[in-house]
Amino acid sequence: MKLLLQLLPCTLAFGTFAQKMTYQADLTNCTKDRIAITLNTTYKGPDTAVFNFPMTVPGTYAVLDYGRFITQFKAFDSSGKALKVKKKGNNSFVIVPGKDVAKVQYLVDDSWEEKNGKTKIFEPAGTGFEAGKYFYINNGGLFGYFGLEWNNEYEITFRKPKNLQGFTTLVQQSKTEDQVTFRSKSYHELIDNPILFTHEKDENIRVQGTDVIIASYHEGMDSSAYYIKHKIDSAMVAIDRFVGGKLPVDNYAFLNFVKDYRELEAVFSGEKKIGLFQKIKLAKSLGGQGFGALEHGHSSSYFLPDFGHNSYTDMVYETGIHEFMHIYSPLSLHSQFIGEFNYTKPIMSKHLWLYEGTTEYFSVLVSMQGGLTSVKSTVENNLKGKIMSASEYPDNMPFTVMSANVFDKPYSDQYAQVYERGAIMAMLLDIEIMRLTKGSKTLKTVIFELCGKYGSNRSFNEETFIDEFVAAVHPDLKAFFTKYVEGTTPLAIEETFKVIGIDYAKSKTGTVPSHFLTDKNCGVTADNRIINGKIAIKKADAANPFGLQAKDQVDYKELQAVYRNEDGTLVPEGTMVTIHVERKGKQVPLTFPAKFQEGMLYNTIEIIRDMTLEQEKLFRLWSTGR
User: Fold this and answer.
1) What is the pTM of this model?
2) Rounded Cα distance, 621 and 601, in Å
3) Which of 7, 182, 210, 429 is most buried, with most CB under 10 Å away?
């Protein structure tokens, strides 16, 4: 109620009734990566009207300021008379008088061309235009709104090159060879549905009655959507198994843009020879690129690199499950701060533990319960990696406080923990729910139940949601939120993991492989850092037992793996093991006898062999969902 009281006077100050916003965007005359936009409306406001572009949008947790890319902004009344316009700040245009605004015109620059790395918009949230080839559109970058009026109906008509098709989950109202019109019921819906114009043929998958479209633009080929579809097919099957019922959306789209870096990969692998200047130019082309993905309620948008062998499909596969699972949270389960998002002065929700932490954890469960990864690999690789990453973040910063202040330092520097510490926190919450309910409920069943109660068009109360969540499970669950989500108590990983039969120790003594990282007297000095999965050798005596040379690059995962059997036990002392090092652009095998020594073991995690009956029951529920 307090928020409504704050917003109501502002809304009345800018306009007194809902307007229909009818836009035209001309993609056929894109000069210097600029698009001409025209808005036809019947806006009847006060003496001064304010036309805004978003400061940010849901899902980004960063300042975007789309209004920076708007130029030549003009406004006219119903008689065609030009009105006075003055820009205010980064995102607002003040129109005087504002009683009769019939037309607005402006140009939009694409954000991908921005050179300032400090203010550059993360590419999946931005806009990219190239005449006749592609248009990658996050709608907040093109279309604005009057005052705080986000509930107007929007009709968007694109004049387009005949060779391009527009892909989105917005409702398509009409279509001809050179024009397409989409509509949305509100500005929220418009922002939540990006659009990709591309010449490539789309691909389709069906998951639990939901139509999934894959649309793509690749700078160097015409069939990237096909390869993405075949890469993520198994992930969609795994989601189908995990959900086990109808999804909360009827349609979904993967919208992909792929940068072609195959030449760069060929050069640095030695397959192609070019001069030093060309190498530097190629390497610089990678600088400042924000590869990744951004979730939306009915779609996810991707900005991907292709280093050869369709490597871009791996990124979609690795992140696609996470992005897809956002159809549950925050699409179908969110507070009023997202449901009634303020694009001008956003109030951030404190529930990132739910929106991102739980979603990332669900992506782990989907892979495991859907058969994409083994239970053993999930425990010993995925969870271990997240625990190690989670330990790098401070415990003295409550998760809810970080979430609510994520735009500001020092909290903005901590955002990435939602995918690591947040995921482990969600797993501990899942285990605690199973323990308190004796396996009758899980985090998944509680989330799905609450999604059914609220859905995409109804918001939960920001301040009382945790109490509501607790009430859906067990009164004793409140202590978990008080200590770990809202408080500063270190996560009880060791104690909680034992409930489902997983043994974790932050540190302990034991038998460790004796190699150049653990034996300081072996004649090899290595860089302590792991960069891109590799360890660089600084110095190596000619007589070292491993056959290493200075500047060799050692694959860290392979080094760890060769000392263990398939069941995870250590190989016998003296077993000949082989690693492959990168030396002068080539893979060189090195074989040597395995040796061991007593030392410290850190972040050890393994499945307990002799579980109690209760541990077996909950472990089975956690690992299979049944």
Assistant:
1) 0.86
2) 29
3) 429
